[in-house]
Specification:
- By secondary structure, the chain is mainly alpha-helical.
- The chain is about 80% helix and about 0% strand.
- The protein contains 4 helices and no strands.
- The mean pLDDT is about 95.
């Protein structure tokens, strides 16, 4: 499977997992928060699949997971859960894309 398609599929799964984690939480605008989180996590998967860096897949995923999660963490002032989830999820997506993507 192509890296871009696999990255998009992993991004969809990563976004769905993040939405599932957020559903029981309360937010002033829950629909906007969940939509933004899904798009951010999908973007992490898509960028990982689209990148062509000469590093191990998990390392590429960790880098992009961190870089793309930090702005959301700064805006919400919820650093540990957002950056932690982005780093771990990014590393997992990077590993999958690096291992199984063509």
């Amino acid at each position: 499977m192509s890296r871009v398609v696999l990255g998009a599929i992993c991004g969809l799964a990563f976004g769905a997992i993040d939405v599932g984690i957020m559903l029981p939480m309360t937010f002033p605008d829950k629909k906007a928060a969940i939509t933004a989180a899904f798009i951010a996590r999908f973007g992490i998967g898509f960028v990982i699949g689209s990148s062509c860096l000469p590093w191990p897949g998990w390392c590429v995923g960790l880098l992009f997971g961190l870089l793309l999660s930090i702005p959301d963490a700064i805006i919400t002032k919820s650093y540990a859960p957002i950056i932690g989830m982005g780093a771990v999820g990014g590393a997992i997506v990077g590993f999958i894309v690096g291992r199984f993507g063509n």
